[in-house]
Amino acid sequence: MIELPEALRLADEMRAILVGRTVSRVLPPSRVHKFCWFSGNPSAYDAALSSRRVVGADGFGIYAELLFDGGLSLAVNDGVNLRFSKSGELPENYQLAIVFEDSSCLCFTVQMYGGIILHGSDYENEYYVKSKNAVSPFSDDFPEHFRRVFRESKPKLSAKAFLATEQRFPGIGNGCAQDILLKARLNPKRKLETLTDEDAERLLSALVSVACEMRSQSGRDTEKGLDGMAGGYRTMMCKNSLMTGCPICGGTVTKEAYMGGSVYYCPVCQPLIK
Ligand SMILES: [Zn+2]
Question: Looking at residue 174, what is its pLDDT?
Fold first, then answer.
């Protein structure tokens, strides 16, 4: 799934590879995916985008967005995979494909769910708006923002829920949160009310430093870029950690079902303090 580091990587790659290319045609889904949604009918994307030139790209929260001349934007959310093919090769199943005038193409595929939204800068979806307006962890305003959100959050909220739900920090999802919590030495299930000021500051600096590392290394190694290559950031806490052990102490990593997903943590480095 795209989280902030991957959204930024995709935007970098789209700017580098796609800006200046002109759309020849847009192919609608090769097969209908029940959980892929579009703005209107994707068959109409061809008429809207043909002959338009890519003028930019952007990444924010859980979205990557391609910008065309004439003020049109094509936004994809966290469940959409993007691949660029210079030769224009397409897989059997795709949800959208943009073929450029030089026959290269950008292909959109969805596994579980995803949104591919063509809009004229007027997309009002709640997630999109929150992602677009998010205070970036890389901005100078972020520490103050984090402290305010922390103060305003419910005391019974867990550290994992605080980081990765309700769009408090758009683009910090389950993936990023695992590594942030390990770096902060906090158990995912720990309630905010048990955190000292020092714990909260450690969580803030872990969030910023993990986000920076992921960003500077082109995203996590569990995710791929336009070229199909995995990111360079070596994920510390994920399902592979069950085999390899805690990256800090080498001990056994615990996996638990939590909040409709799985959490991975080291019971030694991240004890559950109640
Ligand atoms: Zn450990």
Answer: 92
CATH number at residue 70: 3.20.190.10
Tens digits of per-residue pLDDT, 100-153?
Answer: 999 999 999 999 999 999 999 889 999 999 999 999 999 999 999 999 999 999
CA of 251 to the centre of ligand 1 (A): 5
What residues does the ion ligand 1 have nearby, CB within 5 Å? 246, 248-249, 251, 266, 268-269
**Domain termination residue (choose one: 132, 158, 177):** 132
Give a yes or no: residue 270 inside a domain. Answer: no
Nearest residue to 223 via CA among 150, 174, 187, 155? 174
204-218 pLDDT per residue, tens: 999 999 999 999 999
Say how many Å lie between the CA of residue 248 and the centre of ligand 1. Answer: 5
- The CATH number for 162's domain is 1.10.8.50
Q: Is the pTM of this model over 0.70?
A: yes
Q: Rounded distance, CA 10 to CA 126, Å? A: 22
> Are 31 and 42 in contact, with CB atoms under 8 Å apart?
no
Outline where the chain has alpha helix (H): 4-18, 45-49, 126-132, 142-152, 159-164, 174-183, 197-216, 241-244
Total count of residues recorded for the chain: 274
Q: Which domain holds residue 64?
A: 4-132
Measure 266 CA to ligand 1 centroid, in angstroms: 5
Distance from the CA of 33 to the center of ligand 1, in angstroms? 41
Percent of the chain with pLDDT over 90: 97
Q: Ligand 1 centre from 267 Cα, in Å?
A: 7
Q: Are residues 248 and 158 in the same domain?
A: yes
CA of 65 to the centre of ligand 1 (A): 38
* 244 CA → ligand 1 middle, Å: 11
